[in-house]
Amino acid sequence: MPHPLNRIIRVPKLTFARIVLALAIAVGADGVQLITGAFGWVGLDQVIDVITMILIGSLIGFHVLLLPTFVLELLPVVDDFPTWTVCTIVVIFIRRRQQRAVPPPLPPTRPTIEI
Questions:
Q1: Per the structure, how many domains does the chain have?
Q2: Residue 18: what pLDDT?
Q3: Residue 79's domain spans which residues?
Q4: Would 68 be classed as within a structural domain?
Q5: Position 101 pLDDT exceeds 80
Q6: Residue 12 and residue 58: Cα distance in Å, rounded?
Q7: First CA to last CA across the chain, in angstroms?
Q8: Predicted model pTM
């Protein structure tokens, strides 16, 4: 029986639509946080971070890099940097490299003749 966390931690196949949508969410979250940070709305940034991490994780798969990004967003000055965008780009590169990795070909086998 598969573990219940396998559904959460699954790594979906990256498609162009998933990549564009994940980047749009990351850029949007960073933009909204930059704008709302000027007004000092406490709590809104954390809500945006949680939603962003869930959405990006569901689109391109959960990756360990999402956790430090979430923690960095809690710091007052660092949250003005486009951390979600940079993290999403890095995770996409990692995922694409993993999906491009082709297993080595199997060695040729000789046909056997049974007598």
A1: 1
A2: 93
A3: 9-98
A4: yes
A5: no
A6: 8
A7: 43
A8: 0.76
pLDDT at residue 2, rounded to an integer: 53
* Residue 113 lies inside a defined structural domain of this protein: no
Total residue length of the chain: 115
Number of neighbours of residue 41 by Cβ within 10 angstroms: 12
**Closest by Cα among 76, 55, 81 to 66:** 55
Write out the two tokens for 108: 């040729």
Residue with tokens 């945006």: 48
Flag whether 104 is in a domain.
no
Cβ atoms of 43 and 60 within 8 Å: the answer is no
69, 83 contact by CB (below 8 A)? yes
The answer to whether residue 52 is domain-embedded is yes
Assign 10 to helix, strand or coil. Answer: coil
Task: For residue 94, give both structure tokens.
Answer: 């990692």
In this prediction, residue 62 has a pLDDT band, given cuts at 50, 70 and 90, of confident
Rounded Cα distance between 85 and 57, Å, is: 13
